[in-house]
Amino acid sequence: MIADILKILRQQHNYTLQQVADGINVNASTYKNYEYGRREPDLETTSKIADFYGVTTDFLLGRDPSQTNDLNSMVDSIFNRCGTLPENMRNIVSEFLLKVVEESQKEQDKAKKQRHVERLGDIEDTREQEEQAKGDAETSCA
């Protein structure tokens, strides 16, 4: 699965194999083996690839922790069933699934941001209530 993700990321960024290989400081033939699924990058190289594309290592491995288990299961299931499809069809399915994952991440980020905004509003409300209660207490004592 990492091979499909690497290929799609490279194509989305319009990079050549050589450009990515140079960007992560490996041989072009080594990187080509990663994309063709003949080899898997080690942990250090996976980190370099993630940094190069601006994604997480979990994303490269198909395990973005911010996604629900249901979405991960669905994506994994579809990827597993795509193994017998011709390469061009696998690429289309892979691109679609990446877009689904990206949109899911955007929605989760929006929801997280909204929760933060609501929490900040709650904190402001509490402070105002405390100040008002303090003012009321000072007024009643005078």
Walk me through this protein's architecture.
With 142 residues, the chain is an all-alpha fold. The chain has a single domain (2-141), classed as 434 Repressor (Amino-terminal Domain), CATH 1.10.260. Helices cover 77% and strands 0% of the residues. The protein is built from seven helices and no strands. It has helices at 2-12, 17-24, 28-35, 43-53, 57-60, 69-81, 87-141. It is elongated, with a radius of gyration of 24 Å.
Supply database-style keywords.
142 residues, mainly alpha, 434 Repressor (Amino-terminal Domain), 7 helices, 77% helix, 0% strand
Structure summarized in a few sentences:
The protein is an all-alpha fold and 142 residues long.
CATH topology: 434 Repressor (Amino-terminal Domain)
Overall, the morphology is elongated
Q: How far is the N terminus from the C terminus? A: 73 Å
Domain module count: 1
Poorly predicted parts: none
Determine the structural class based on helices, strands and strand pairing. Answer: mainly alpha
What is the secondary structure topology, with strand pairs?
Layout: H1 2-12, H2 17-24, H3 28-35, H4 43-53, H5 57-60, H6 69-81, H7 87-141
Helix pairs in contact: 2-3, 6-7
